[in-house]
Amino acid sequence: MIVYEMKLQGTKSQYRRLDEAIRTGRFVRNSIIKSWMDGQIKSRKDAYSYCKVLSDSPEFPWVSKLNSMARQAQAERAWASIERFYRNCRQKLPGKKGFPKFKKYQVRASVEYKTSGWKLSEDKRYLTFSDKFEAGTFKLWGSRNLHFYQLKQIKRVRVIRRHDGYYAQFVIDHTREEKKELTGKQTGLDVGLNYFYTDCSGTQIENPRFLRKDEGKIKKLQRRLSRTQKGSQNRKKARNRLGRAHLKVSRRRNDWVCKLAQHVIQSNDFVAIENLRIRNMLKNHKLAKSISDAAWYRFREWLEYFGRIYGVPVIAVEPAYTSVDCSNCGEQVVKTLSTRTHRCQHCGYVADRDKNAAINILKSALHKLSNTVGQTEINASGEIDLCLSGETSLSKSTRRKRKPKQ
């Protein structure tokens, strides 16, 4: 599956109807979670059936306005959170198990249509929603071209509301494959905060620190938001300006790690990375902001995504002792976090701390690949399709300021 994203251009009244559809979808999901808590829903089939109960109920007449397949998509989301909770309980994961929660209002929200409830124009530049909310026809703005795909290949259309507008994501049934010439190179990557990563040849990539660069502007917008009165229009405007500033930072960060990951995959035939537990590392409140700004896990997801596209193995290994072991003789050299140079007292090997760790990561991955068990654990974090959560940047022609229709 691949996902193309385009911005929706419409009037304010059309946007309000999209808000109603999103709010109705959230109500369906929360109702299913509540019925599961009460013991009325015990399977996915029961969740589907409860969508019909909600639409036929005279107590909730607005539910029937939402397309039936859009209601089913909300049932799938609700049951996915329930299944995740059951799976975590069976695996006896430490800490919280992710008990399903009710969704509250958020600016970033979405509603999903399957094969009905929407229609594309013949030139595939206009999208019309045909459910009872009567949102009407929207113009599609973006650099992606849907003419390369048949209408039957579009399996879902997801409407997403963000701080800077409304977007449509088209989930297309297509397998992306790219050809790549063999380079004969293999590398291990050790990520860090001083440098984004250091590979086994000693190449270091600077950490861009997108959040740190815009932190002054964001703090200023946060102060302006705190001074506004709750419930006022000025507060909504201030919140929207703050949200767009965070959105800009996240898009710049995601675009940077995406391009960097693609470059790494195209330059190597084998890539080894660390299987870091980012959630546990964020418990260090002195480094949590810097770790989140570095986007290590996002970089790993893009590596595995492009690895599948270009046919390059990407193996995640355990990070234990990668910084302690000597990559030359294998003896352990205990170092503090402030010690940035590896000096082995046993063999006299001297190297940068991160380069030594990158070589150990590559050796561990090659040993893992040589075993039959290791071959089944390639892409250990799972088949995560980055396109389902990524954003497509607009073309230059769409970046100009557009006046909304009245």
List keywords for this structure.
40% helix; alpha+beta; 14 strands; 406 residues; seven-stranded antiparallel β-sheet; 10 helices; single chain; five-stranded mixed β-sheet
Explained architecture:
Strands 2-6-7-1-5-4-3 form a 7-stranded antiparallel sheet. The protein is built from 10 helices and 14 strands. The protein has helices spanning about 10-35, 45-55, 70-90, 210-225, 235-265, 280, 290-295, 295-310, 355-370, 370-375, and strands at about 1-10, 110-115, 120, 125-130, 135-140, 155-160, 165-170, 185-190, 195-200, 205, 270-275, 315, 340-345, 350. The model is unreliable at about 370-385 and about 385-400 (pLDDT under 50). A hairpin with a 2-residue loop joins strand 6 and strand 7. Helix 4 packs antiparallel against helix 5 (about 235-265) and helix 5 (about 235-265) crosses helix 8 (about 295-310). The protein is α+β, with helices and mostly antiparallel strands and about 400 residues long. It is elongated, with a radius of gyration of 25 Å.
